[in-house]
Amino acid sequence: MLRIQNLSKRFNSKVVLDDVSFEAKDGENLVILGRSGTGKSVLLKCIVRLLEPDSGQIFIENKNVLSLNIKELNELRKQIGFLFQSAALYDSMSVRHNLEFPLVRNFEFTPKEREEKIVSVLEKVSLLEAIDKMPSELSGGMRKRVGLARAIITEPKLMLYDEPTTGLDPITSKEISMLILELQKSLKMTSVVVTHDLLCAEIIADRAIMLNEGKIIFDGSLEDMTSSNDEFLIQFFKHEILNKSETTNV
Ligand SMILES: Nc1ncnc2c1ncn2[C@@H]1O[C@H](COP(=O)(O)OP(=O)(O)OP(=O)(O)O)[C@@H](O)[C@H]1O
Ligand SMILES: [Mg+2]
């Protein structure tokens, strides 16, 4: 479904992605872990060409993403859902209009079809009662769920999630992670999930990658990653677990 080959990206003299290669198979849930500032968001943005990589290749369903023209790229983007790190909703639009936005912009659905899709996707994230609410009336967890609904409403084949559980309490994080897993199964999507949240990774990951200073230093099962003897991985998970117990105690 997704194949990245020798991808590199720098900003001025700062190398952010350094010869990154990996694949996500059809229907697979791939989790990308890594410390803050290590290039995870840049990597996701390169995949949909919100940022242009300096070198390397990206294939989505055997389409060479970097060689597409704007029209072809827009066609491809219709099949990709992106949940941004901020999961920003349009504050001046109700939940219904936030969800309608990607449908109106990219597709030619009738108003009735649009309404059906909006209702169906809100049912999937258990938020139908919020359909006429404004984002400011929702909790952080609810906003994430609306963001998730907006990302999947076009039924993408590939979903890219950037920190889907950041800023949520541990219980809500777990709910969102379970929801991502459920949606992925029922919609048969391939997902790439960037996260700091080890519990989220444990729930979602079929496979896990560790990115450090722009390089992939591990690609395999999460179990093997967390039990690795590699000094960096030991330190990473030690801090990750310490952070988690701190947030749980608050
Ligand atoms: N548009 C940009 N212009 C210049 N530098 C950028 C840009 N976007 C990201 N960077 C730099 O690239 C590096 C990687 O950023 P990125 O956002 O990918 O980190 P991250 O791994 O997602 O971190 P976090 O876990 O905190 O979200 C950072 O040093 C950042 O300052
Ligand atoms: Mg990021």
Give a verbal description of the structure.
This protein has helices spanning 40-47, 70-77, 95-106, 111-124, 140-152, 170-187, 198-204, 222-226, 231-249, and strands at residues 2-11, 14-24, 29-34, 55-60, 63-64, 80-83, 158-162, 190-194, 207-212, 215-220. The chain is α/β, with parallel strands linked by helices and 250 residues long. It has one domain (2-249): P-loop containing nucleotide triphosphate hydrolases (Rossmann fold, 3-Layer(aba) Sandwich), CATH 3.40.50. The strands form 2 sheets. It has a 6-stranded mixed sheet with strand order 6-7-8-3-9-10, with helices on both faces. A 4-stranded antiparallel sheet has the order 2-1-4-5, with helices on one face. Helix 5 runs parallel beside helix 6 (170-187). The longest helix is centred in the C-terminal third of the chain and has 19 residues, at 231-249. The chain is globular and about 55 Å long. The termini are far apart. The mean pLDDT is 90. It binds adenosine-5'-triphosphate and magnesium ion (MG). Magnesium ion (MG) binds next to helix 1.
